[in-house]
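Hey,
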Amino acid sequence: MGDGILGYPFRRFLLGHPPIFREWSGSTALLDWLESSTSHIFKLNVPGFSKDEIKVQVEDGNVLHIKGEGRKEEYEGKEKDTVWHVAERGTTGKSDFSRAIELPENVKIDQIKAHVENGVLTVVVPKDASPKSSKVRNINITSKL
C-alpha cells in the first residue's frame, strides 16, 4: 500500500488524528466513524451479508480490520428447461470487501462489540478513561559512562 508523503507513521503528526487505511475492493461497505464521550462507533453498509460472512478483527495491536466475503449464487444446472433472460444479481451481487482502520491509543481493545442488523454493521470500541502512563522517559546524565 503506497502511503506517499503523508504516509504512516507521519500522517498522525501532520494531520493530528488517526488515519483511516482503506482497502477498496469496489464494495458498498461505506464507513461512518462517530465518536462519543465513551466510545468510537463505526457503521458500515453491508447489505446482504450475514454475520457469518463478516469478520471483525484487531491486528498489529491497534488496527481494526473488517472483512466481508459474499457467496455468489449458482445459476447453472438447476433445471434444463429453464431459460435465463437476465442474470445481473449473480454477477454484481455481494462483492468481497476489506476495511482497515488504525484505532486511537485510548481504547479498550478487549471490549470491542459488533452487531449487524438491516444491512448495517455497527462496531463499538469503548474508550479507556484511565490515564495512560507517559511515553516520555527521562534519562539521567552522568559525567562518565
